[in-house]
Hints:
- By secondary structure, the protein is an alpha/beta fold.
- It is 26% helix and 13% strand.
- The chain has helices at residues 2-8, 26-34, 47-60, 76-81, 110-116, 143-152, 157-162, 166-171, and strands spanning 40-44, 64-68, 85-88, 121-123, 189-192, 203-208, 211-215.
- The strands form 2 sheets. It has a 4-stranded parallel sheet with strand order 1-2-3-4.
Amino acid sequence: ELERYESEKKDNPDAKAPDEKWIRGVFATARNLLTGKSIALTRASTIYDLREVCELARRFEFEMIIEGAEEAWIEPGVLARCRASVVLTPRSRRDRDESRGAAGGSSIENARILYEHGVPVTIMPGSRGIALWGLAGRDLSHLPLEAAFAVRGGLSQEVAVESITIEPARLLGVADRIGSIEVGKDADFIIMDGDLLSYMSHVRWAVINGKIQYDKVEEGLLDHIRPAGEDEPKPPEDHWPRRLGDPL
Length: 248
């Protein structure tokens, strides 16, 4: 009835709108989805589940974001045809189901293959928190390293950086404010002392709302590591943590 009304009112301004009192709760959610006011978010890993959700999106013509999609590399065209966006964790592993007798499991080339087929790719780490269980341990498992694994799978470095900056901003509908360094956008960014996607690099400065909120050389934990960019800088007289063999 809603479709009929939308069609009739184009020629008849006095067309009577249907009673919408019953469109509440889950029905209101479905209506917003079918009319393009909302975007569906689902998690699907196997190629079978991916085919099902994509067929649903094509049948009812709604937008969809898929998390996981570990087996999307098998048939990337399926996701491209339903215009889905994908949120990947490149290091996420899924073993092939040997009983199926077909291609399966995760692939390090997933991000590259999807991007080459026109599927928007956003990269997200497996853990969204920061743990203090060792600086060279937990911190390495976060966002830049996930993007670096996608590069190892063939994705270009430029696209990998976009997948953790402007692409998620577009996905959330806030690309006019964040996601890239441009005049008029929020001045939130970091400056690294090396390659953004290298585990050897450190944040040199962090700028939030246009002000420097973090300066590595002023912090006690990392100030002794390449303070001025030297490959082998001399340690300060009093630093922590001390290197192995340093006098107490």
